[in-house]
Amino acid sequence: MRRRTRFNHPSAVATTLLLVIVILPAFHAAENISYSFTSFNDSVKSSFAFRGDATIYQGALQLTPDSRNGDNLLINKSGRILLPDPIKLWDWQQSNNTKRVASFNTAFTINVFRDNGTVPGEGLTFLIAPNVDEPPPGSYGPFLGLTNASLDGNNSNHFVAIEFDTAKQPYDRDDNHVGLDINGVDSNITASLTPLGIEIAPVNPTNHTVWIDYDGVHRHVWVYMAVEGSEKPVAAVLNASIDISDYVLQSSHLGFSASTGNNFELNCVIAWNLTVEKLPDDGGGLSLGAIIGVAVGVGCVLVVMTLTTRILVVFCRRKRAAGNERDMLRKKLNGLPGTPREFEYKELKVSTGNFDERRKLGQGAFGEVYKGVLPGSSMEVAVKRFSRDKTKGQDDFLAELTIINCLRHRNLVPLLGWCHENGVLLLVYEFMPNGSLDQHLYGGEGLVWWRRYNIVAGVASALHYIHHEYNQMVVHRDLKPSNIMLDATFDARLGDFGLARALDTDKTSFTELGVVGTRGYIANECCITQKFTRESDVYAFGTVVLEVVCGRRPLYDVSGFHLLVDWVWKLHREGRLLEAVDPRLGGEYPAEDAERMLLLGLACSQPHPGARPKAQAIVQIVSRSAPPPGVPKFKPAFVWPPPQGPLLKGNHDDDNGTSGTTLASSTATSSNGVFSSAGGWALSLDVETGDSEKISRR
């Protein structure tokens, strides 16, 4: 990495050498290891290690034989198909002596075929294996190509697998389940597929798609399954806490295994996608000798340069301030876990066509976002260029980078890296090909119902993660459709953490002079207290839910109402709630789900923060594992300070409550104050007009 720094004192050389030694090992490219196979034929055969009775045939990975020469050729078989190159799944970070575990996600389509009238057996697995050796002798039948009677359960096996089992053993719950296997086939946790209407080996041949997501930060796995062509379900069929680094080798092989027993089936994988977070190579970077060599070389060159040319010294003097600022920034970033990649400015300039206006994806208070394609690859990225004043811009840049770099969740936009050069601050994110949610709600062809529901579920999951699962509570403060991105499969990814703040464990709110955010998504109490909390994020989420269901913006003049939430509440009181649903859906939606979403949106929009459901309850409601929340027919008045005693009904301190707390309607309002926000607009805290009946009714 080239540096431009002025040296006017011998200690500057030592300082530079120290910076080189400290910084160089930390800068690893934030990359993923990816494989994608839409079908299988002889041209990709070299991409796999075939073991046992496995092969490629008829466009599929066939883990057990496909033969009609006699049933004896089909029974008691086992096979494995693995990626021949090992993938590093965990490592120790020497800087802080902590273990880092790679996150990964995979999606594959399977077909488990059995002849009509026959009983299937035994099953297949997605496998993390220590090597590409042959399956152990006797690994047919209930052992699924993983182990055998003498090795089953042995810690030396070093495998973790997700099984799809079609034969019941004494230790199994049934003959149609998913299980998590650790070093043995007696699953640590299982989930029956029968209640979900899924049959692994149905009489009529059916393809099923499986999604497996593993979070290496929180050591948790989720498994989803649906008939091919369906969207990824909202709820996982199996989820479990597991630190795979406790069981698998540091570098392991990923793939599949299967077996037949006295009963048989054809176990096929017909498509497979895999993405694994790439961890640094062993040693954490350059060798010590290489670092010293680079450091000494750079130091000597810089000293010679300062002694041989006055012109260069003058030039460097002008750049010194920027260089010092950049070094200070690097020092701060090196203190972060998993330091993101530093991009060169010229690389991002080329990728965005010199920040061509035609490549602009959007613009906000902090700057512009451009689409780019990294030179030398086909990787598409979104480049955020900060444009606020120098001091505030760097604060915003550091705040966003510090928070998003530490967050790992399938419903957050992944950060790839950063750049700070010549006073320009840039963040590089993974590109979301389907843009932002607002583009689809208010333009284009709109969104079908099931896609809208899945988007709400994804945002709810992300909100629960930043509020309750991450080791610091994060308050987003700017939750709205334009900050909800949609990936290639229209899964929601919450982005733009420019206003977000991480709070210490003993804090519950963040205070800032002036009110930040976007009008229509800011809870009333924020304008008085200037504090942002989990409850204020939930308020914004409720606004988003109503937008998604109604297809209308939050500040929308309809039927004499200036706020969407007031109009929806009126329909709720009159028993006409479903009339709020976006007419563009043409009635193509489940009425029960639409009512569930509208009630959730109203519950989250309760004027009193304590009456709003917590993120955990929201996830339960969206996943249909809890009933819709109870919502009063009349919208309560906003009263501050919050009412105490009999005016407040319910227990709003219960994190697991799903019915929500209700406020009795009241004539009390705030004291006619008008509060100016940092954005320059004013908000009256009087009860909104437009529906006289909602005032003073009890």
From TrEMBL:
It comes from the Eukaryota. Keywords: ATP-binding, Kinase, Lectin, Membrane, Nucleotide-binding, Signal, Transferase, Transmembrane, Transmembrane helix. Residues 1-30 form the signal peptide. Its main location: membrane. It is found in: Membrane. GO terms for molecular function: ATP binding; carbohydrate binding; protein kinase activity. Residues 642-678 are annotated as: Disordered. The keyword Lipid metabolism does not apply. It holds the Pfam family Lectin_legB. It is a single-pass type I membrane protein. InterPro entries: ConA-like_dom_sf, Kinase-like_dom_sf, L-type_Lectin-RKs, Legume_lectin_dom, Prot_kinase_dom, Protein_kinase_ATP_BS, Ser/Thr_kinase_AS. The chain crosses the membrane at residues 288-316. ATP binds at K384. SUPFAM superfamilies: Concanavalin A-like lectins/glucanases, Protein kinase-like (PK-like). Residues 657-671 have a biased composition (Low complexity). One of its GO terms (cellular component) is membrane. Residues 355-634 form the Protein kinase domain. The keyword Transport does not apply. Gene3D superfamilies: 2.60.120.200, Phosphorylase Kinase, domain 1 (3.30.200.20), Transferase(Phosphotransferase) domain 1 (1.10.510.10). PANTHER family: PTHR27007. In the N-terminal section; belongs to the leguminous lectin family. In the C-terminal section; belongs to the protein kinase superfamily. Ser/Thr protein kinase family. This is Protein kinase domain-containing protein. It comes from Ensete ventricosum (Abyssinian banana).
